[in-house]
Amino acid sequence: MLELKHIKKYYHVGDTITKALDDVSVSFRQQEFVAILGPSGSGKTTLLNMIGGLDRYDSGDLIIEGKSTKTFKDADWDAYRNNSIGFIFQSYNIIGHLSILDNVEMGMTLSGVPKAEKQQRAEDALTRVGLAEHMHKRPNQLSGGQMQRVAIARAIANDPEILLADEPTGALDSVTSEEIMQLIKDLSKERLVIMVTHNPSLAKEYADRIINFADGKIQDDSAPYDEHEADDHFTLKRTKMSFWTALKLSFTNIKTKKGRTFLTMFASSIGIISVAIVLALSTGFQTQIDKTEGETLAQYPITIARQGQDTSQQPEQQKGFSKSDRVTAKTSASDKAQHLNKIDQNYLNYLNGLDKKLAKNISYTYATGLNLVRDINGQYKPVKFSNSNPENTGADPSAMMATLGVGGSVYPVDRYGKQSYLKTNYKVLSGSYPTAATDVVLIVNRDNTLNINSLKNLGFKVKENQKYNYKDLVGQTIKVVANNDYYQQVPTGNFIPKTDYNDMANAKDTKTLKIAGVLRVKSKKSDGMLASGIAYSDRLSSAVIDQNQNSAIVNAQKNSDTNVMTNETLTSSSKKTVLAYLGGDKIPAAIQIYPNNFDDKDKILTYLKKYNKDKSKADKIIYTDLAGTVSSLTGGLMSAITYVLVAFAGISLVTSMIMIAIITYTSVLERTKEIGVLKALGARKKDITRVFDAETVILGVGAGILGVLIAWLATFPINLILENITGLANVSHLNPIHGVILIIISTILTVLGGHIPARMAAKKDAAIALRTE
Ligand code: ADP
Ligand code: MG
Predict the structure, then answer these.
(1) If you measure from the C-alpha of residue 7 to the centroid of ligand 2, how many angstroms do you get, rounded to a whole number?
(2) pLDDT tens-digit map of 678-722
(3) Average pLDDT for 412-432
(4) Which part of the chain is the ABC transporter domain (predicted)?
C-alpha cells in the first residue's frame, strides 16, 4: 500500500542541521492501525506530513500503491492529498467561519463533487462520528471532543485510503480520548490509519502495530511488513476550486468580521469618493461653461462684413506739440484701420470647407431689399421688415437703402438644413419653428414686448402698450413681389414702383410669406443675436436674389452710372449698394459664423487666418471676433484645474490600494492555519490565491459601490451650497458611466493591491502553516 524507502528530511537553521527524518524505511499494509510513539521533536509530525504529501522529502522515495512519487508535480501531490489522504490534527483545525457541514464538505468542494452528493456524504460522515444532531451548529458551539469528531468526519468524507492522525487526543480529557480512539479504531477496519501519539497505553490498547520513533529513526516496529513490489495501479483525480467556491469562502469569512470589512471598504472608498466628486464637479462646470459659451457666441458670432476693422493697426500715439511751421496731410488711424473685405464666391467656397462640426450655423446677410405688400383691411399696401420709425424716413430713398438696409434680422439655418440655432436659443411661445424658406418669425423681448415700429412697418394700426393675442400675429401672411411686377419703366427711362398693389399680390411670381411663430430667447443672461421684430432666413434672401438678378431694373442699373430711380450720380461703391439692394448681387454683405464654444471658435479663427496667408494686404479678409472682447472663462483653465484635482484624488486612490494590500496581508497572516487546512485537503496554490483574490474582489467592488454611492449622495448638498453661492443649479452631476468606470477601477486596483499578498499566501508551506498557532 505505502512504502517509504530511505526517506531523509533535514532542516537547516543557521549552522545547525536537524535530522527530522534520518533514513526512514518502512512499509504499511492496506488496512491496519499503526501507532507511532516517540518523544517530542523526534520527527513524528514530519513523517506524517511526508506521508500525507504536505511536506517534501529531501531524498529517498515514497511509493504509493506501486507508484514512485519522485516525479510528482505540485498538482499530483494536491490531488493525492485530496483523493487518498485524510488528516486529523491535535488542534482540530476547523475553519471557524464556515458551518460544520461546509467544513466537512470542503475536500469534496475542492474536487468538484456535485452539491447533492457532497451534502449526502458529509451528512453520512457526521452521522458516522456521532454528530447527527449537531450538524447545524456553528463550530464555536461545539466541545473539544465534538470538534475532533467534525475533523474526523472531514477526514473520512472523501473516503480516503489513508487516515493520518497527529496526536488526535492530545487536547482531550481521558474519557473523550477513549471515545475518539474507539472511533478511529472503527475507521481503521476499512483503511490504513497511521496515528502519532505519545500515550503508550492508548497505543497498546487500540493499535494493531506500534512503531517507536526517536531522533528521526525507527527504533523498533511491533509488526514489520515487507511490501511486495506491486504493479502501478494508482490513479488520481485532479482537484480544482471554482471561482464561485473561492468567492463563497471569502464571503463567509468576510461575514464574520462585518464591522472591520465595512471600515476597510469605507477607508478604501475615500479615493473613489474624491475622484467621483471631482469628476462630477468638473463635468457640471464644463456643462455650465459650454452653455454660457454657447449663449455668448449665439449673441456674438464671428462676423465678416464688407467693411472690416483691422484691429492689428496700432492706435495713434499721443505726441508732443510740433515745432514745424507747416501742416502735414495724413490719413487718420481709424481710416487706416478701415479695410474693405473683398468677399467673393471664392471666399464663400472656402467658408464651405469649414468643418461643419465646429460651426453648425453660418448666416449670410444680403443687402437685398424685399418688395413687400400686405393685405390691410382688404387692400394690399406696401410694408417692410424694419424697426425704424416710419415717420422719420421720408427724405432720401437711396440714403435710406444704405443706412437701413432691408430691416428685420436674419436667423441662421443650420448647415445640415436644420433649425438648430433657433431651437437651441429660442423658445416657441406660439405657432412653431420655421420650416420653409418663406416662413418668418416674430421675435419678442424677454418681457414679451415687441418693437412698436416693427408692427407699424407691417401696416398694423398700433398704439403704445397695445396688447396682441398670439393668434392675431401667428399665421399672418405677407407677399414678396418680384422686381418685374413691382417696378415699371416710365418713358423718361426711369424706374418707379407701381401702385396697383392688389395686382402685385396676385402676380404669378409673387411669394407668400407666413409668420410661423412668436419666439423668445431662452437664455436668462444673453439677449441673443436677433432683435425684437421680424426675423427671416437667408434662404429667403437668396431666393429673392435668384428671382431678381436678371430683372429689368437690375439690368438697367448695371448699365447705368446714375441711380435708375432717382437719376442721382453714383460712385462705384454706391452703385454696388444700389445693385445689391435691387437683388443684383449674389455675394452677401456680411457673414456670421456661430461657433459651438470658445475652443471651436479658436479653431475657426485659425481656419479664417489661413485664408489670408500669402495674400496681399488688399486681398485679405478681416473678421471681427465679437466674443473675443467678452472675457471668458475658458474650458482650458477648467480642464487644468480638473487634472490637478484628479491627480490629488488619484493619490488617495493609490493610498487606499496600499491599504487594501495591507489588509489582505493581515488577512493572510490571520488565516495561515486555514491555508494549511485547505492545502491538507488538496487545495492547489492557485486555489489559495483565488480565495484571497476573491476576497479583494469583494472588497474592491464593495468599496467602489460605496464610494460612488457616497459621492452621488454628496452631490445633493454640494449642489445646494453651490447654488447658494453662485446661483448655478445642479453643477455637480455624477455621470453614471463615470460611476461604473470608477467601480471597475476600484475593483482592479484592489485586486492588484491584494494579489501580491494572495500570492504570498499561496506560497506558504503547508507544513509550516499547520504548525503555527
Ligand atoms: P515531533 O512531531 O515528533 O514532535 P517534528 O516532526 O515536529 O517532531 O519535528 C522534528 C524536528 O524537526 C524538530 O527538532 C523540529 O524542531 C524540527 N523542525 C520541524 N519543522 C521544522 C522547520 N520548518 N524548520 C526547522 N526545523 C524544523
Ligand atoms: Mg508533532
Answers:
(1) 18
(2) 999 988 888 888 888 888 888 889 999 999 999 999 999 999 998
(3) 84
(4) 2-240
The Cα-based distances of 743 to 282, 607, 653, 705, 709 in angstroms read 19, 42, 12, 6, 10
Q: DSSP class of residue 388?
A: S
The domain 2-238 is placed in CATH, from the list 2.40.50.140, 3.20.20.80, 3.20.20.140, 3.40.50.300, at 3.40.50.300
Residue 651 in this model has a pLDDT that exceeds 90 = no
CA of 95 to the centre of ligand 2 (A): 21
CA distance 142 to 217: 38
Condensed to tens digits (0 to 9), the pLDDT of residues 519-542 reads 998 887 777 778 888 999 888 989
Spans of all domains in the chain:
2-238, 254-291+637-771, 302-310+332-594
pTM score, whole prediction:
0.64
Count CB-CB contacts under 10 A for residue 100.
Answer: 25
Pocket of ligand 1, candidates 18, 48, 87, 768: which has the most ligand atoms within 8 Å of its Cβ, to mutate? 18
Nearest CA to ligand 1 atom 10: 43
49 CB within 6 A, ligand 1: no
216 Cβ closer than 6 Å to some ligand 1 atom:
no
* Atom nearest to 47 CA in ligand 1: 6
Could you tell me how far CA 238 lies from the centroid of its own chain? 42
Q: Determine if ligand 1 sits within 6 Å of the CB of residue 46.
A: yes
Within 10 angstroms of residue 742's Cβ, the number of other Cβ atoms is 24
CA 733 – CA 731 distance, rounded (Å): 6
Nearest Cα residue to 584 out of 612, 551, 627, 560: 551
Say which range, 64-73, 520-529, 547-556, has the weakest mean pLDDT.
Answer: 520-529
234 SS3 class: coil
More confident residue, 334 or 521: 521
